[in-house]
Amino acid sequence: MSTTAPSTTTETRRTLHDGWTLRATSGDTPVDVALRSIPATVPGLVHTDLLAAGLIPDPYLDRNEQKVTWIGETDWEYRTTFTWEPDGHDHHDLVFEGLDTVATITLNGRGLARTFNQHRTYRLAAHDVLVAGTNELVVHFASPVAYADQASLDIGYRPHTYFHPFNAIRKAACNFGWDWGLDAASSGIFKPVTLHAWSGARIESVRPTVTTDGTAGHVEVALALQNAENAAPVTATGTLTAPDGAEHTVDAVIDGATGTLILDVDEVELWWPRGYGDAVLYGLSVTIADESGVLATWQKRIGFRTAVVELLPDSDGTSFRVVVNDEPVWVRGANWIPDDAFVTRVTRDRVAARLDQAEFANMNLLRVWGGGYYESDDFYDLCDERGILTWQDFLFACASYAEEEPLRGEVEAEVRDNVTRIMSHPSLVLWNGNNENIWGFEEWGWEKRVQGRTWGLGYYLDLLPRLAAELDPQRSYTPASPWSGDVDRPANEIDHGSVHLWELWNRVDYPHYRDTVPRFVAEFGWQGPATWSTINQSISDSPLTPESPGMIWHQKAQDGNDKLTDGLVAHLPLPDHTEDWHWAMSLNQANAVAFAIEHWRSWSPKNMGSIVWQLNDCWPVTSWAAVDGYGRAKPLLYALKHVYADRLITIQPRGGDLVTAVVNDSSAAWDGDVVLRRLGYDGTELAATTITVSLAPRSTQTVAVPADLAAFTDPASEVLVAMLGDERGFWFPVEQRDSALPAADFRTEVSATDGGYDVAVTATSLVRDLALLVDKVDVDATVDDMMVTLLPGETVTFHVTTTKTLAPEELTSSSVLRTSNQLVTDWS
Questions:
Q1: Model pTM?
Q2: Which residues form the Glycoside hydrolase family 2 immunoglobulin-like beta-sandwich domain (predicted)?
Q3: Does the CA dihedral 424-425-431-435 come out positive or negative?
Q4: Which residue ranges form the domains of the chain, and what is each CATH number?
Q5: Residue 500 pLDDT greater than 70, yes or no
Q6: Segments in 112-159 forming alpha helices (H)
Q7: 372 within 8 A of 615, measured Cβ to Cβ
C-alpha cells in the first residue's frame, strides 16, 4: 500500500458513525422487517433503530414487551462504507469501545475478529486491510438469546435467577429481564467506533495512583505503550494542573513498552465527598513525543484524597465503614441500575438529572450494581465533580459463574479494561466482587445444584482481588455484597460487614427493621408504583386497576402486588379506588424506607450506612426505585431527602421505653434544647419537657424520654413530638389505620411566581404526610418538598416549578394535594 509523508506524527482519531444500515439475517422476524434494510444509528441498538423506523411498538407501553422478544432471538447485520486515503501513518486500528455482544467484524471482506463480551474495548489492526477510496465495514451480531442458551450447555449448567442463562455470556445480566426490568436482549454497536491512525508509538493505558501525606500529594503514573517495530525511545511528559492553573511537570525517557512518571506536590487541596468539603479536581495530562514531534496525548482529572473501606473486628462484630481523608463517612446512599433498558439513550444530561435527584435527597454515595454495566465516563466525571462517592460492582449478579475458559479469559480482559478506565476517578471508593452470589450459594440452594463445578468463588477470592491490587493498588476491594468479612462466616451476617435485608419486603413487615442493628446495609427497599402520570403514559388499560393486564405486566416482582398489599394493611387501609390505591402504595413505600433509615441512623456509629434499593428505574414499572422510569420523583425521594438530612431527630423504642436520638452528621456542632411535647391531635399540649443536648460534629446522642411523657392516655389520638431547632421527629403510638386521625382540615393559598407557583397550606387539624403530586397536572412539573406532617396552626409552602398556566384548584384538588388522613377517614 502506497503512503505519503505525514504532515505531523500526532495520532488522529476519526469516528465512523455515519452511513450505517441494519438488517436481520436470520430468525423468525416479521415480514416487514425481514425484507428491509433500515438506517442505523451508531452508537445505538437494534431496538432503538427499529423504533425509529416505526417497525416495532414501544416496548415500554402496555404489554408490548412480549411483542418484541424476537429481536433478541434474531441475528443482525450492521453495514457501512467510508472513504480513506493514505495519510502517512504506519498504523491504523479500528477501535470498538462497545459491541453488544457476539459480533463478527469484517473490513473489505476480510474477517478482523469475533467478539463475545459486551464489557470490553476491541482494538483491531486494520492497516493492511484498508484500501484507498471506499472501504466497507460490516459487523454481524449473533442472537444473544441463542448464544447464551448454547453456551450454558457448552460450559455446563450453573444456577441463576430468572429465566435466561445470563451467567453464560458476558453481557449485562438485567438485559435479559429482572424483577424490575423488561426482557429486551439487545444487539448493536452501542459505544463509539473510531479509526485510530498513529506512528512510532501510542499510549495504550495510563494508570495514575494518587496518594497524600498530610498536605503533600503524590501521583505515580504507570504508562503502557504500544511501540511500532524498531521504534525509538520516547519522552513522556506528565503535567498536573491545579485549580488555580499552576502546573507541575515531569519528563521521563521510555525505552520499551512501560514507564513511570512521578509527580510530587508539596501543597495540594484535598478532594472531599459532599457534605465534608469541596470536591477539588486537578487536571492530569500525559504526552509522548519523539524527535519528530508529539505522538499521542492522554488527559483526565484526578483528586487528592485517601479512601478506605474498613472491615475490622470489634466488640459488636465486624465493622463496615467508609473512611475518606481519615474521616468516617456515614453513607447515605442508593443503588444505581442502568437508567434505561436501552443504554444508548442514557445521555450525560440524563445522568446529571439523576445525580441532581440524588443530591436533592441528600445522598453521598451511589453503588453501581453488578447486573448492569461498568458505568460510563460521564457518570464518574459527574460524581467526581459533585463529591458523590461511588462503589462499582464487578459484573456478577444473582448467579453462579463458570471459572474455566472461555469465560475466565473474558472476565480478566474486561476487568483490565474497566479498572484501567475508571481507577483515576476520586469518587470511586470500592471495587466489589459480586452481587449476592456467595450468599446465593450458601442460602438459595445453589450448592447442591452446582454438583461440584466451579461457581465463581475463585473469581471473588483470587482473580478479581489480584487484578484490582495490580491495577488499582490504593482502592479497597470486597469479595461480595453482602459480605461479612470472612469466607468461613455466612455472607449475610447481621453483626458483620455489609448486609442485604430483603426478608422485610418479601415476608415480614417493615417494623421488624428494628429487630436488629446491622453494621452496614448495602441493600434494602420497599416497592411502590411509578408516578401517576407515568402509569397513564405507559399503560392504556380501561378500566385501570391494580390488577389490570398492563399494570400486572409492569409488575415484575414475584407476587409483587400481594406483597404490596400485605405490607400495607397493617398500617393503612387498602383502598378500592385505583387512584387511592396508587397514593397508599406510594406513601407506604416512603414510610417503610424512612422507618428503616431512622432506626439505623439512631444507632450510628455502630451502624455506618444504608444504601437503599434503588435510586432509579430503567423503564416505567412498579419497583423499589425513588425515581421512576420516566425520571419523575416518587414520594420516596422526598422521604429520603428528610431522613438523609445532615441533622435528624427521631424518637425510637429501646427495650420497653422510648428515647430521642439526635443525629448530627454535619461539620458543625449542634447544641440546644430538645423540646419534647405530648399533644392531642387537636394540638392540645398534654405534657412537655426540655432536655439540653450538645453534639460534636458527626456524632449521635440518645436521651431517654421521661416516663410521664410516654404515658399516653389515649394512644389513638395522641402524638409525641421532639424538636431541636428546625428539626423534629414524631412518635405515633398506634398505626394510622387504628388512629383517630381526623379528616385533613386546612386552608390553601396559591400564588404565581417566576417559573411556577407557591402553594401555601395552613393546617387547622393534624395533617399527616402532606404531598403535592404535581405530575398529575403537568407531567414536567416538579415540587420542592413532600411528605410533610403539620400540627394544627402550622403552615408549609410548596414551590412548584412548571411552564404551564395552572388554575389554583388544579393544584389543591383532593387528588393532587394528598394526605394520609384521606386514606384513614375515607375508609373508616
A1: 0.96
A2: 202-305
A3: negative
A4: 12-197 (2.60.120.260), 200-302 (2.60.40.10), 321-640 (3.20.20.80), 647-738 (2.60.40.10), 746-827 (2.60.40.10)
A5: yes
A6: 144-155
A7: no
